[in-house]
């Protein structure tokens, strides 16, 4: 019976992360698609933040709506998920990334190029892109770690709103320079569908490094197990 319940639990988590990541990719990349009425940097940034906000509202109570391998790594370090669960999250996020962006290409096949990708400014040096991605992902990861702190239990309802606005702010400052990934799943789907891998490693190594650092600092420096206050 326990085995069956675990299968059901893991299945719910897989579907939640799969559909959540697919929705995130579909909406955020759709927001970067040029059109005559609404286009440009500001529109893409707002869309990305609202996409995160929406996914957290829909799936937050099922899987936590990580929709980001970095968030899952942070959750694992913070003791929110075990290694097996983390693997399930990761697989679901990768497939969700492919599905979300693939659906967008079905609707707009003529837009198949580098749209929706997280690409750096042409004049930006790779090391600068790396540092910026580390810094912005560190901020996002610290914010995500705070959502698991028992001392903020009474503020759970506002988490989607606060994380969503943070994503908007980080996109506004960083997207023109790095594409503002902060999420390997966000970068992976468009890169694979477009077969464009320019410094793609940065969008894995920088966010993951920042997430690990942020989770360790939050766990041991801010004493998340201190209980409610």
From TrEMBL:
It is found in: Membrane. SUPFAM superfamilies: Aquaporin-like (SSF81338). The keyword Membrane applies. Keywords: Membrane, Transmembrane, Transmembrane helix, Transport. Signal peptide: none annotated. The chain crosses the membrane at residues 12-33, 87-108, 129-149, 161-180, 201-221. This is Aquaporin-like. It comes from Nicrophorus vespilloides. The gene is LOC108565436.
């Amino acid at each position: 019976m326990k085995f069956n319940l675990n299968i059901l639990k893991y299945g719910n988590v897989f579907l939640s992360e799969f559909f959540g990541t697919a929705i995130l990719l579909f909406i955020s990349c759709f927001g970067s698609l040029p059109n005559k009425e609404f286009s440009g940097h500001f529109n893409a940034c707002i869309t990305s933040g609202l996409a995160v906000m929406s996914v957290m509202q829909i799936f937050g109570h099922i899987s936590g709506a990580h929709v980001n391998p970095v968030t899952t790594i942070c959750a694992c370090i913070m003791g929110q998920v075990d290694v097996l669960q983390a693997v399930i999250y990761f697989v679901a996020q990768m497939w969700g990334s492919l599905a979300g962006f693939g659906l967008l290409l079905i609707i707009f096949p003529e837009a198949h190029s580098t749209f929706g990708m997280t690409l750096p400014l042409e004049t930006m040096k790779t090391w600068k892109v790396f540092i910026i991605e580390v810094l912005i992902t560190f901020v996002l990861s610290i914010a995500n770690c705070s959502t698991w702190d028992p001392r903020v239990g009474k503020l759970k309802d506002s988490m989607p709103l606060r994380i969503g606005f943070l994503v908007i702010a980080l996109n506004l400052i960083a997207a023109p320079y790095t594409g503002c990934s902060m999420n390997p799943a966000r970068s992976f789907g468009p890169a694979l569908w477009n077969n464009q891998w320019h410094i793609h490693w940065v969008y894995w190594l920088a966010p993951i490094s920042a997430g690990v650092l942020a989770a360790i600092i939050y766990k041991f420096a801010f004493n998340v197990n201190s209980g409610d206050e």
